[in-house]
Amino acid sequence: MSAAFWYVVKHPSKSLSTTGLVFAGYGDHQIFPEMVEYQSCGVIGGKHVFTQKEHEVIDHTKPASLSGFAQTSMIDTFSLGLSDEAFSSMMVAANWELREFANNIIAASGAELEKIDNLPSLVQATMRKIRESVLEQARENHYVPLRNVIGFLPVDEMAGLAETLINLQSLKEKVTKPSETVGGPVDVAVITKHEGLVWIKRKHFFDSELNSRYKLRQAAQIQN
Q: Does position 130 have pLDDT exceeding 90, yes or no?
């Protein structure tokens, strides 16, 4: 059994005229789904300028994929065990402490700092190893087991998980930042090979309780 799981969080663009676009679904001859993420900078000089950021393909060797877009701190924490902000802060602190440790060792040994002209490169090389080790551990201990479990979740549970993660992101933005970039009612849809796009939860721009004719039209369409 193979499954795909992607969720999208919309937010105002951080840079002028830059828009994120995510395409997910099945081609005419595809058995498994595929997702492509683009960053569009708009039309410049009559030409559409864009870059491809992410591309995920589900197959027999990769039963599921978990990706976040725009605001991703909660999906990163959920899938890797730490957010990008926490990881970046940890790397900055580790780099500073590593430099201080190296300087202290040099001073304690009586060596002359000026004679070690490649100290910055040595620190950077060690930092790369630390970064790779942390990310590899996060991937093996968090992302891979989670991905394997998601690959066997029923469709309704995957939809519920996506909505929960977005709500958590919205709550985090609300309580930690002065301006909310994620919030409000959440639309949830599922795309399957046989049913196509099916709305699990969809908000209306009007109150359906105040529009009885709308309900009657919907009921008539279902009966037909």
A: yes
